[in-house]
Design a protein that fits this description.
The longest helix has 18 residues, at 586-603. By secondary structure, this protein is an alpha/beta fold. It is 32% helix and 22% strand. An eight-stranded mixed β-sheet has the order 1-2-9-6-7-8-11-10, with helices on both faces. The protein has an eight-stranded antiparallel β-sheet with strand order 24-23-20-21-22-25-29-27, with helices on both faces. It has a four-stranded parallel β-sheet with strand order 14-13-12-15, sandwiched between helices. The chain is elongated, with a radius of gyration of 30 Å.
């Protein structure tokens, strides 16, 4: 089937088995990235430019600027021109004539700086680039060395390798910007955790701790700076080759394998021989070959150039010498021990909830030897956050574009261990950011579907998962027909709010129409984020309500238990009590677990905690909603008291790619009862807390509202005034303790 655009032809490169005489059934393959239209960086250019257009960082028709003298320039020219953007390339006199001619032919404006600045050609090019950015408003700079879209582009390369081979044992790749090796290895290790990763560098490059030699001749690998996109924690072994060794290997690649490539591919080819020689029997090894040889006809393949540069004066090693990291090398050498950097790694939090769990999560991050960072637009929202010692970054958290700007500009990718949130509202954007950064997380489409209850309803219906009758309403004109389909009474609620906010039981058409109009009129939620402006009409099911607490690990949902929920009877549905684990017949528990698991499969949830609310009706389990996050209402704390499993810590572990620890350490029960006003007015006091704390089995009495606060009979979770938690051997003893403790408490409300 033909590609719809030249941009769609990027990728899909051949994988060929190299003709090498190897013992022990070792297989060596070359991923011919040089078969892209201009080279491997075509992938990076497409990813960076398409993503910038999607997030709004690059406007339609706005200019693109890049500093490059090689394949990144050509990739940007290809994609930028095809998508209608003027392209400006900043380079220096070292650009080869072939690349220069291609750029001009593609319609680029090529800016060649005339002289080095104090820090060499690279800094001279960056100075010119900054000048162009000032002169060209709205210009986009892909920033290949620090933009996570660079390694992100190679997820597709990893997918292609898995499709072609099924599995592999060792990946070998050169390092320049750090994107191809880090991105490919990170993606492959999700499926192949035992993958060994070998990096190829050049003598005179600082990337892996060698002294800088700006006169080195190799192009496409090596660097005079350590790129932020290089994740050294992924690398198991490093090789360095000098210019003579790299150029000779490149010629050998053409002579022995009939692959006319650049010196980056040649260096990888030479290292593949050594890696294959030392590999375990039956190993399958893949080397990434990035560049074609046409740019190197006048140097690598030119005898005159070799004579001019006296290349043969450099020594050549037949095989590498093993060294310790930090040892200065002059010929082919490798290091395989002591490579992992010891710098602290960061766990990013995008906002948090305000029930206390969010601040607790910041504290828990330190248990994992991580540096917690809270990204927030309102730090005053989180009492106690400064005391955790976390870094608080005040920034715009309302859009993915704004968050990408602050993360990309402030946190090197190689220092980020994970990204997460404890706030319902930010789960989808965190999924998108995790994908951008190549971090563990759920597919964005899964969290977006679960977060938007209308989308979730439609997916569950298509999968045949039990749920109430429903209708999605996006205008008041649709409401009348929706009532006929769903019937009365029915529940009307927003598709994307939280905490039972604006959930209302309506018994007449007039009530339905009025509440639909209200829901559709709300443009922003409590966090100031835009709403879906979509209402759901749902069949009212009078049946006991439960929530199934799942934790999905590598696509397999594990049930942590089932919570019995007591909810106010309407017209508002506010949770009044939770008991964990729910006292249920095994048949009913099995039905609830299977329904929750089917819902997660239908939505595409792959990792982390979920909280699925279900009513157990005469028709069987009917899904109320699926939340792609930890349960609220202190349910994780009940699980901790009853089982010993700290689910919040497991969420943080999963966000960082660590295996969650889900095995229960004990079998007990716990419960919570929420305090609320019985009428509208002003809170005068809540009396009897000390007496309630003395009740046997009571673990905690927490008052969250101060005297003088305006209160009302509860309409949503924000109307709670406090809670009581109890623990015990059995559910019935927990219920008894809660009842006795609440009997000691008096909520005094006076007229306003």
């Amino acid at each position: 089937m033909p590609y719809q655009s030249i941009v769609d032809a990027i990728g899909h490169t051949p994988l060929v088995r190299l003709a090498m005489d190897l013992p022990n059934a070792v297989e060596v393959y070359a991923k011919l990235e040089l078969q892209n239209l201009y080279g491997m960086k075509d992938r990076v250019a497409r990813q960076a430019i398409v993503e910038a257009r999607r997030t709004g960082e690059l406007a339609e028709g706005a200019p693109i600027i890049e500093s490059s003298s090689g394949t990144m320039a050509l990739g940007v020219a290809l994609v930028g021109a095809r998508l209608g953007h003027p392209v400006h390339i900043v380079t220096d006199p070292r650009i080869d004539p072939t690349t220069h001619a291609k750029l001009r032919a593609l319609g680029c404006r090529v800016h060649v700086v005339e002289a080095m600045s104090g820090a060499g050609w690279q800094s001279a090019r960056l100075e010119k680039l900054e000048e162009l950015i000032r002169d060209l408003p709205g210009a986009f700079w892909p920033r290949q060395y620090s933009n996570p879209d660079n390694p992100g582009a190679y997820r597709l390369l990893a997918d292609e390798l898995l499709t072609d081979l099924g599995s592999l044992d060792i990946l070998v790749g050169a390092v320049g910007s750090g994107g191809s090796l880090s991105g490919s290895a990170r993606a492959l290790r999700r499926s192949l955790p035992g993958l060994r990763v070998v990096a190829v560098d050049c003598v005179g490059s600082v990337v892996f701790g060698q002294p800088d030699n700006p006169k080195r001749l190799q192009g496409g690998l090596g660097n005079s700076l350590v790129p932020a996109n290089l994740d050294r924690t992924l690398v198991d072994e490093i090789h360095w080759l000098n210019d003579h060794e790299a150029f000779e290997a490149t010629r050998a690649l053409a002579r022995e394998q009939q692959i006319f490539a650049g010196n980056t591919s040649g260096s990888v080819y030479r290292v593949l021989h050594d890696v294959a020689r030392r590999a375990a029997p039956g190993s399958r090894i893949v080397g990434i070959f990035p560049d074609r040889g046409d740019r190197y006809a006048d140097n690598v393949y030119s005898d005159a150039y070799w004579i001019e540069r006296d290349l043969t004066a450099l020594p050549v090693a037949a095989e590498p010498t093993e060294v310790t990291p930090g040892t200065e090398v002059a010929t082919w050498s490798y290091a395989a021990e002591g490579l992992k950097p010891q710098e602290p790694r960061t766990l990013l939090f995008v906002e948090a909830n305000t029930s206390g769990t969010g601040v607790l999560a910041l504290d828990l991050a330190r248990r994992l030897d991580l540096v917690p960072v809270l990204l927030t637009n309102a730090p005053e929202r989180y009492a106690g956050a400064p005391e955790t010692g976390c870094e608080i970054v005040v920034c715009d958290t309302s859009t993915e574009k704004a968050l990408r700007e602050v993360i990309g500009g402030r946190f090197p990718r190689n220092r980020i261990a994970g990204i997460t949130t404890t706030s319902d509202f930010y789960v989808p954007v965190v999924s998108r950011l995790a994908e951008w950064l190549g971090l563990p997380g759920n597919p964005p489409q899964a969290t977006e579907a679960a977060r938007n209850k209308a989308t979730a309803r439609e997916l569950l219906a298509a999968a045949g998962v039990g749920q109430p009758r429903f209708a999605v309403v996006r205008s008041t004109a649709q409401a009348a027909e929706a009532i006929d389909r769903v019937g009365l009474p029915c529940v009307v609620k927003p598709a994307d709010d939280s905490g039972s906010n604006d959930v209302l039981l309506c018994r007449s058409r007039t009530e339905v129409l009025a509440h639909v109009e209200r829901v559709l009129s709300v443009e922003t939620n409590v966090r100031g984020l835009p709403t879906a402006r979509t209402a759901l009409l749902e069949e009212y099911v009078e049946a006991p309500e439960f929530s199934v607490e799942m934790f999905t690990d590598n696509g397999v949902p594990v049930c942590m238990g089932i919570t019995a929920k007591t909810v106010s009877p309407g017209p508002h549905f506010v949770e009044q009590q939770h008991i964990f684990p729910a006292p249920l017949a095994e048949q009913d528990a099995t039905a609830l677990r299977e329904t929750a698991a089917a819902a997660l499969t239908a939505l595409g949830i792959k990792t982390g905690p979920t909280h699925t609310e279900i009513r157990l009706s005469e028709r069987g389990p009917l899904i109320v909603e699926v939340n792609p996050r930890l349960a609220g209402g202190m349910i994780p704390e009940l699980i901790r008291l009853a089982t010993g499993v700290e689910l919040l810590e497991q969420q943080l572990r999963a966000a960082c790619g660590l295996a969650p620890e889900l095995a229960a350490a004990r079998v007990a029960a716990a419960g919570i009862r929420f305090l609320a006003a019985d009428r509208d007015g002003v809170l005068a006091s809540i009396d009897g807390a000390d007496e309630a704390r003395l009740v046997p089995g009571i673990e905690r009495v927490q008052l969250t509202a101060a005297a003088g606060r305006t209160v009302r009979a509860p309409q949503n979770a924000y109307d709670r005034l406090g809670y009581v938690i109890a623990e015990g051997d059995m559910a019935h003893s927990v219920v008894k303790s809660l009842h006795e403790a609440v009997r000691q408490l008096t909520v005094r409300v006076v007229e306003s």
